[in-house]
Design goal:
The complex is a heterodimer of chains A (about 300) and B (about 230). Chain A has about 300 residues and is mostly helical. Chain A is built from twelve helices and four strands. Chain A has one domain. In chain A, the strands form two sheets. In chain A, strands 1-4 form a two-stranded antiparallel sheet. Chain A has a two-stranded antiparallel sheet with strand order 2-3. Chain A is globular, with a radius of gyration of 19 Å. The relative contact order of chain A is 0.20. Chain B is α/β, with parallel strands linked by helices and about 230 residues long. Classes of the chains: A mainly alpha (about 300), B alpha/beta (about 230). At the A-B interface, helix 7 and helix 8 of A face helix 2 and helix 3 of B.
Chain lengths: ~300, ~230
C-alpha cells in the first residue's frame, strides 16, 4: 500500500484532533500542578463524569440542541463537583506530605468509578452526534469526519482563551505569579486558598469539557479515565509539568506520533509515546518548555 | 503602640528558633533588629506576618490580636513584608510585578501610586517592560520593596534588604529607606549590616541565639563595646 500525500494529510488531521483532546485534558492537569503543586490523578475521573453527563443530557434533550446544551452543562456540573472536592478534601492536605495528595486523588478515582457504576451501570454507552457534526468531508478521495474539525476548533478556542487569560488578565497574572511564588502572593494580601479553589474549578471544567467533547467518538465505559490519563501524564512530562504551552506542545507531538505510528506500525503506536517520554526524562527531565526545578515558595 | 510582640516562642518542627521574644514599635518609628546570621531575625519577622505560627505568646497590631492569622489577613490590616530572598515573579514584567502589589483600587485622592514608586526608584520605570527575572540583585530588591509599597502599607517588615548587594547599591538603598521614613512609614528592619541599619533607625533590638539581648537607643548601642563587638561583629 502506498502512502500518498493526501493519506498523510488525513493522518495529520486525525492526529491534530487527538492532540486537541489531549491538550484540553492536560491543560487542566498541568494548571493544577503548576499553581497548586498537586498532581491530580483523579483528573481523568472528572473527564469520565463529563462524558457520562453528556450521555444523559443528550438522552434527555434529544435533537439538535441536546448536544450543545450537554457541551455547556456537563462541564459546569463537573466543575461544581471539582469545587466541592477542593473545599472539602484537597484543602486539608496542601501542607502535608505529597504522598497524602497522591493517596487522596488516587482514591478519588475509585470513588468516582463506583459512583458512575451506581448511576449508569456497567453497560457501554454511546452518545450520538448531532446531524450537523456527524457527516464527512471528502477531500482527494479521502473522507474526514466533520467532528475532527469540531474538536480542533474547540481545542484551538480553549488554547486562545487560556492564552488571553494568562497574558492579559490580572487573574491570569496572579496564577503565573502563584505558580512561581505562592507564599509571596499571600504576602501581597491575596487569599491564595480562594485562588486555589478557582483554579481547581477551572481545571475540572476543562476535564469535564474534554469528556463531553470526546463522548460522541468513543464508547463510554468504566476505566475510560485511565486510558487517557496515562497519555496526559506523558504529554505534561514531555511538555514540562506545570507549563500550559508545554501541554499544548506535548499534546501536538503525542497526537502526531500516535497518528503516524498507527499508520506505519499499528501495534506499537503507544510504545513510541512511552519511548519519547523516557528520552525526555533522561535528557530533559523538566520537559521541553519547562524550567529546571527551583525552590518553590 | 502600633505593634506589640509579647513573649513569642516559634519552632521549626522540634527546633526552637526564638525564645520569649518581645518587641514594640510606635507609629512612625524605624526600629532595627540586629544580629548574626541564624540569630532569629527572620523568624521574628515571619512570626509577625503569619508565615510561622508562634507556639506561645501574643502579637497585637493596633491593639488587635493577629497571632496565628494567615499572612494575607495580616497584610490586609496594613502590614507589608519584604522577604530577604526577594521572591519576585520572574515570569512577569517589572510593571506587572508592581501592579500585582496593588490588590484593589485605592480610594480616590491618593494619587497615582505607580508614579510614586517610580519617583522613589526611577530605574524601575526605565525597565518596566523587562522581565523581572533579568534584573540584577539590587534592581530586584528595589522591585520587591516597590511591589510591597504598592499595597499602601502603614508598617513594613524589611528582612535583610542589603544582603548580597554591592556597597554602592547598599548606600542608595539606605537613602531610599530613609525617604520612606520621612513619608511616615513605620519600619521594622532586620539587618546584619549593623552600621547601615543603626544610621537609619530610631531604636534598636539585638537578638542572639533566639533571645533579645539588647533593647534601647541606637546611640547607647553604639557606645556599648561589648554589644558591638560580641554580638554584631563591628
Amino acid at each position: 500500500m502506498g502512502f500518498d500525500a493526501s493519506m498523510l494529510f488525513v493522518q495529520f488531521i486525525s492526529g491534530l484532533s487527538r492532540a486537541m483532546i489531549l491538550f484540553l485534558m492536560s491543560s487542566g492537569l498541568t494548571l493544577v500542578f503548576g499553581v497548586m503543586g498537586v498532581v491530580n490523578f483523579a483528573h481523568g475521573a472528572f473527564y469520565m463524569i463529563g462524558a457520562y453527563l453528556a450521555f444523559t443530557l443528550t438522552e434527555i434533550l434529544t435533537g439538535f440542541v441536546g448536544f450543545w446544551v450537554a457541551l455547556l452543562i456537563a462541564p459546569t456540573i463537573v466543575c461544581l463537583i471539582g469545587g466541592l472536592v477542593e473545599v472539602l478534601l484537597l484543602r486539608r492536605i496542601y501542607e502535608k506530605e505529597h504522598l497524602l495528595q497522591i493517596l487522596l486523588t488516587y482514591a478519588l478515582i475509585f470513588v468516582f468509578n463506583d459512583i458512575i457504576k451506581m448511576i449508569w451501570g456497567v453497560d457501554l454507552r454511546i452518545v450520538s452526534l448531532p446531524p450537523a457534526l456527524g457527516g464527512f468531508f471528502t477531500f482527494f478521495g479521502h473522507s474526514f469526519p466533520v467532528y475532527y474539525f469540531f474538536i480542533i476548533g474547540v481545542g484551538g478556542t480553549v488554547a486562545l482563551l487560556l492564552w488571553l487569560l494568562l497574558k492579559k488578565t490580572r487573574f491570569g497574572k496572579l496564577l503565573r505569579a502563584s505558580a512561581e511564588r505562592r507564599d509571596m502572593v499571600g504576602l501581597l494580601g491575596y487569599n491564595v486558598g480562594g485562588l486555589f479553589t478557582l483554579v481547581f474549578v477551572m481545571a475540572t471544567w476543562l476535564g469535564g469539557l474534554s469528556g463531553a467533547v470526546i463522548a460522541p467518538t468513543v464508547r463510554l465505559s468504566l476505566g475510560m479515565d485511565m486510558e487517557i490519563i496515562i497519555e496526559c501524564f506523558i504529554v505534561v512530562i514531555v511538555g514540562g509539568l506545570g507549563n500550559i504551552w508545554g501541554a499544548l506542545l506535548g499534546a501536538l507531538i503525542a497526537g502526531q506520533i500516535y497518528a503516524f505510528g498507527i499508520l506505519f506500525v499499528p501495534k506499537y503506536a503507544m510504545a513510541f509515546l512511552f519511548i519519547l517520554a523516557a528520552v525526555i526524562i533522561i535528557f530533559r527531565p523538566y520537559g521541553l518548555l519547562g524550567k529546571p526545578a527551583q525552590a518553590r515558595g | 503602640m502600633l505593634l506589640e510582640v509579647e513573649k513569642i516562642d516559634t519552632y521549626y518542627g522540634i527546633f526552637q528558633a526564638i525564645f520569649q521574644v518581645s518587641l514594640e514599635l510606635d507609629k512612625g518609628e524605624v526600629v532595627c533588629l540586629l544580629g548574626r546570621n541564624g540569630a532569629g531575625k527572620t523568624t521574628t519577622l515571619t512570626s509577625i506576618i503569619g508565615l510561622n505560627r508562634p507556639r506561645s505568646g501574643c502579637i497585637k497590631y493596633k491593639g488587635l490580636e493577629i497571632t496565628g492569622k494567615k499572612p494575607f489577613q495580616v497584610v490586609r490590616l496594613g502590614i507589608g513584608f519584604i522577604p530577604e530572598d526577594r521572591w519576585i515573579f520572574s515570569d512577569l514584567s517589572v510593571k506587572e510585578n508592581l501592579e500585582l502589589g496593588m490588590r484593589e483600587k485605592r480610594e480616590k485622592g491618593r494619587g497615582p501610586v505607580l508614579e510614586r514608586i517610580y519617583e522613589l526608584f526611577p530605574k524601575l520605570k526605565l525597565m518596566e517592560k523587562r522581565n523581572a527575572g533579568t534584573l540584577s540583585g539590587g534592581e530586584q530588591q528595589m522591585l520587591t520593596v516597590g511591589r510591597t509599597l504598592m499595597g499602601d502599607p502603614e508598617f513594613i517588615l524589611l528582612d535583610e534588604p542589603t544582603a548580597g548587594l554591592a556597597p554602592i547599591i547598599v548606600r542608595s538603598l539606605g537613602d531610599q529607606i530613609r525617604s520612606l521614613k520621612e513619608e511616615g512609614l513605620t519600619i521594622l528592619l532586620a539587618e546584619q549590616n549593623a552600621l547601615l541599619a543603626m544610621d537609619i533607625s530610631d531604636r534598636a533590638y539585638v537578638i542572639d541565639k533566639g533571645t533579645i539581648v539588647y533593647e534601647g537607643s541606637v546611640e547607647k548601642l553604639r557606645e556599648d563595646d561589648n554589644m558591638m563587638r560580641g554580638y554584631l561583629g563591628v
